[in-house]
Amino acid sequence: MEEHIFHEKDISNDSFLVTGGAGFIGSHIAEYLLKHGAKKVRVLDNMVNGFEKNLSILRNYPAFEFMEGDIRNAETCLMACTGIDYVSHQAALGSVPRSIKEPVYFNDVNVGGFVNMLKAAVDQKVKQFVYASSSSVYGDEPTLPKREERIGNCLSPYAATKKTNELYAQVFADVYGLKLIGFRYFNIFGPRQDPDGPYAAVIPLFVKGIINKTPVYINGDGEQTRDFTFIDNAVQINIKGMLTRNSDAFNKVYNVAVGEYFTVNHLYQACAARLKSDWKPVHREPRAGDIRNSLADVSLAEKQLGYKPVKKFDTGLYETIEFFSQLYSG
Ligand SMILES: NC(=O)c1ccc[n+]([C@@H]2O[C@H](COP(=O)([O-])OP(=O)(O)OC[C@H]3O[C@@H](n4cnc5c(N)ncnc54)[C@H](O)[C@@H]3O)[C@@H](O)[C@H]2O)c1
After folding, report:
1. Most buried of 97, 190, 275, 323 (most Cβ within 10 A)?
2. Among 27, 185, 189, which residue has the most ligand 1 atoms within 8 Å of its CB, making it the best to mutate?
3. Ligand 1 cavity residues, CB under 6 Å
4. In sequence order, what are the residues at sequence separation of 6 or more whose Cβ sits closer than 8 angstroms to the Cβ of residue 323?
5. Which of 68, 134, 255 gets mutated to test ligand 1 (max ligand atoms within 8 A of its CB)?
6. Which domains are delineated in the chain?
């Protein structure tokens, strides 16, 4: 696997907090920081969707610290931010259909927990704070490619929580002077993404179904498009956002994507071809709250943060399939 370096600054005197670091995206961010010699990398996670196997990778590094706790508890957030220079806030509940079933729970974690983290970061004088928003904020805005300033109505409670995060971020930047940067992730995929449970993401589900020859479902006609974004790109923007010295970059949200889109049918065919399988998918009803087409303009992140997608769809898919193939073959 080819490795990329996303920072220039020496981070050996810097302490980082990654919330949600036992999950998919957070564990990759924490691993990058540990691998590159950060002084301290603390993970805060309550393990609702996190995994010990992700933490066990991080436990190999002496600079790693795990704090089991819930972002809904303000005191926990305050403790987690103690002695921290930079925060990457990834902890949240992340499924559109689940948010339609459980909007109050989503609000408590994704909004209440977020505000607790912002307040704790202010109180503990955190230098820079980056956080996960989502492409779902674009809602029913049909223009492609998606540009940051043009958003529509939210199509789900999940999207509403992320849009609310962006509002609070702007307020905390303006009122308390916190240096904040938000990331609208577009379908992040890669190794460690949870393939199980009713709310699993599409790529691990496809790969798992094709390998195990169990039913693979495509919602609707499969001609909906997504800007599938390999995990390295999400890690890259988090590192660049936390460490940037460009004052024009603060108090903004950025698309995190590749700037290329593929249909879900194409994705399925690419997975099956890579796995040399003729297993066929089953089409079912479209999913409520889903966006039809998604494609990002990433030029703002390129300009302000020096972001450049390093691994695109094919390379990322190949690495992801390798990971899951090994997982399922033993
Ligand atoms: N994966 C994607 O494609 C995608 C797209 C858009 C936005 N996002 C956002 O990126 C972030 C990370 O997503 P992910 O895919 O890694 O999800 P994930 O579920 O793998 O990771 C989230 C982590 O947050 C933890 N968590 C949840 N509730 C918590 C709480 N109350 N207190 C402490 N920890 C809690 C979970 O245990 C989990 O480990 C989330 O904010 C998500 O909404 C992800």
Report:
1. 190
2. 185
3. 20, 22-26, 45-50, 70-72, 90-94, 109, 113, 132, 134, 185, 187-188, 194
4. 190, 191, 192
5. 134
6. 15-191+229-259+296-311 (3.40.50.720)
Q: How far apart are the first and last CA of the chain?
A: 20
Residue nearest to atom 10 of ligand 1 (CA): 132
Active site residues: 158
How does pLDDT run along the chain (330 residues), one tens digit per residue? 668 999 999 999 999 999 999 999 999 999 999 999 999 999 999 999 999 999 999 999 999 999 999 999 999 999 999 999 999 999 999 998 899 999 999 999 999 999 999 999 999 999 999 999 999 999 999 999 999 999 999 999 999 999 999 999 999 999 999 999 999 999 999 999 998 887 788 999 999 999 999 999 999 999 999 999 999 999 999 999 999 999 999 999 999 999 999 999 999 999 999 999 999 999 999 987 677 899 999 999 999 999 999 999 999 999 999 999 888 876
DSSP 7-32: --S--TT-EEEEETTTSHHHHHHHHH
The strand order across the sheet containing 180-185 reads 64-68, 40-45, 15-19, 86-89, 128-134, 180-185, 252-256
Distance 279 CA to ligand 1 centre (A): 31
CA dist 286 and 11 (Å) reads: 46
